[in-house]
Amino acid sequence: xxxxxxQAVLYETYGGGSAALKHVEVPIPRPKTxxxxxxxxxxxxxxxxxxxxxxxxxxxxxxxxxxxPGTDVAGEVVEVGAGVKSLKAGxxxxxxxxxATGGGLAEYAVGKEAVTVYRPPEVTxxxxxxxxxxxxxxxxxxxxxxxxxxxxxxxQSNILITAASGGVxxxxxxxxxxxxxxxxATCGARNxxxxxxxGADEVIDYKTPEGATLKSPSGKNxxxxxxxxxxxxxxxxxxxxxxxxxxxxxxxxxxxxxxxAFKKLTFSKKQLVPLLMSFKSENLSYLINLIKEGxxxxxxxxxxxxxxxxxxxxKSMDGHATxxxxxxx
Length: 329
Ligand SMILES: NC(=O)c1ccc[n+]([C@@H]2O[C@H](COP(=O)([O-])OP(=O)(O)OC[C@H]3O[C@@H](n4cnc5c(N)ncnc54)[C@H](OP(=O)(O)O)[C@@H]3O)[C@@H](O)[C@H]2O)c1
Fold this sequence. Notes:
Bound molecules: NADP nicotinamide-adenine-dinucleotide phosphate
InterPro entries: ADH-like_N (IPR013154), Chloroplast_QOR (IPR052733), ER (IPR020843), GroES-like_sf (IPR011032), NAD(P)-bd_dom_sf (IPR036291)
Helix content: 25-40%
Number of helices: 10
Distance between the termini: 18 Å
Organism: Citrullus colocynthis
Protein name: Enoyl reductase (ER) domain-containing protein
Radius of gyration: 20 Å
Shape: globular
Pfam family, one: ADH_zinc_N_2
């Protein structure tokens, strides 16, 4: 296996966008003791992939060049390290490769056993490769930060989800509706019916003057906002929040961090909560099971072969995906 070659995608410096992606032939990686080698069937892109390339997380990521991007993969285990206990060759899996190592835009990828989860064969590779970053972020925002119980047992909450048509947002709407919630969602005009079909109770067009105020058409104040868009200041959220309302900001800019600190220091009941997804395998298994049970669906914006990975990259950078962008080796 070690001497065989595979197709993979890399970039060698910061910047350059999709044009800077290079297709290369490299040796198929060997799994270390605690790793599995996966024959990749699908990989999904996330905005963080091109943000790392842009140098937005410099100097932390990438750790070195060339960098092989792509973290969210689904495929079949073809080899396991000597210490791997829970998986075996032939298992269908989903893995979250770290942003530091990446390597998902390739025919084969290695993942730690701890971040690789079994998936039942009836859950497709594309549907499950879409889950790790996007759905785990939506799940964490709703359950951990907003305190929503997805079995519907909690008290009724009013939730606002911004950018509900995107990768994170489309999962957030569906997951929120598993709880005892009233969901208001924002998206562009072309996606209003789509977002309603995901379960949103009311939908606002973010490009209209009324939409820009984020006011609920039925006059609700929000107990929590899962904020998946960017560039909306606290002053727009504040008048729409209930007395203990929280804005969970998954793309906090410097102004949001100042608001976060100020609200904390002044013991404000209304809070801004910056959120960074932290991987939990049990949560990924839970989400895969929801897909299997038909309670959650992945909506695929577009699919590309690995040979056209740069087109998928450009589509993600464009910022107008409806659902998830998938690359299939
Ligand atoms: N903190 C974390 O751990 C974490 C995890 C995942 C993602 N993120 C971040 O969260 C953001 C969203 O990620 P994503 O994967 O969902 O992105 P995405 O799929 O690229 O989002 C694209 C969608 O957002 C919609 N949109 C853009 N601006 C909007 C606005 N102001 N109001 C309403 N809708 C708007 C677009 O609609 P139109 O086409 O109609 O404009 C499009 O459908 C990104 O910045 C990403 O980096 C953070």
